[in-house]
Write a structure and sequence with these properties.
With 206 residues, the protein is of the alpha/beta class. It has one domain: Nucleotidyltransferase, domain 5. The chain is built from 7 helices and 9 strands, in the order E-E-E-H-H-E-H-E-H-E-H-E-H-E-E-H. Strands 1, 2, 3, 4, 5, 6 and 7 form a 7-stranded mixed β-sheet that branches. Strands 8-9 form a two-stranded antiparallel ribbon. Helix 3 packs parallel to helix 4 and helix 5 crosses helix 7. The longest helix has 16 residues.
Length: 206
């Protein structure tokens, strides 16, 4: 992170439903590689019960600093935006992509802080190019990450669906199971989409 600090990066923000994970992922294009790092939030109250019900180690992840909690029983968007604004003060965040659903106040707060935000439609047509790019980076071992356990879990929960034109988008495996989460994958795809549309590839090596 220290070496990436001065390099341009692009974000993806996936705002969850009231009790689910919210995810923010930054992507740094550097030559032929893309470096990614995620942040996750979950409501503090009822955490242990949610972990038991979903059979997901939220309590352990919070204790290890892998997931941050927001006060109360539902996700406090103000806490999330303040954290992102804090990151923007130390990192060169050029743009953040987001899903418009339920995000009006959140993105307005970020925009007022001088952070460029762009609406990314959540369908196969919009997700096709960045998702295929993500797959290419993974297969060629050019996606550099920390092995973040929560992001790994999101990947394990993820499958794809496609439309009649073979445009693809991420979906949950066994979508009827509420414990499945792909928030980090969706945020990573939106971050990569922003980077691709801005056609930025930083020269040099870390």
């Amino acid at each position: 992170m220290a070496r990436l600090k001065r390099r341009p990066c692009y974000g993806g923000l996936d705002l969850a439903a009231v009790h689910d994970l919210t995810s923010f992922v930054l992507a740094w294009p550097v030559r032929q590689f893309v470096y990614v790092y995620p942040w996750f939030w979950i409501p503090e109250e009822g955490l242990a019960e949610r972990a038991r019900k979903d059979n997901v180690p939220y309590v352990d992840w919070v204790a290890r600093g892998l997931v941050e909690t927001t006060p109360g029983e539902v996700t406090d968007w103000r806490f999330v935006t303040e954290r992102i604004k804090q990151l923007a003060r130390s990192l060169d965040i050029k743009q953040i992509g987001f899903d418009r659903y339920g995000a009006r106040d959140t993105v307005a707060d970020l925009a007022e802080a001088g952070i460029e935000v762009v609406d990314i439609a959540q369908g196969p047509l919009s997700f096709n190019a960045p998702m295929r790019r993500l797959n290419e980076l993974v297969l060629s071992q050019r996606l550099i990450h920390t092995g973040h356990p929560v992001l790994r879990w999101n990947v394990d929960c993820c499958s794809i669906t496609q439309d009649a034109n073979e445009n693809i988008k991420p979906v949950k495996v066994e979508r009827q199971r509420t414990s499945k989460r792909i928030d980090g994958v969706v945020a990573a795809i939106m971050a990569l989409d922003c980077a691709m549309k801005n056609e930025v590839t930083e020269a040099g090596v870390l």
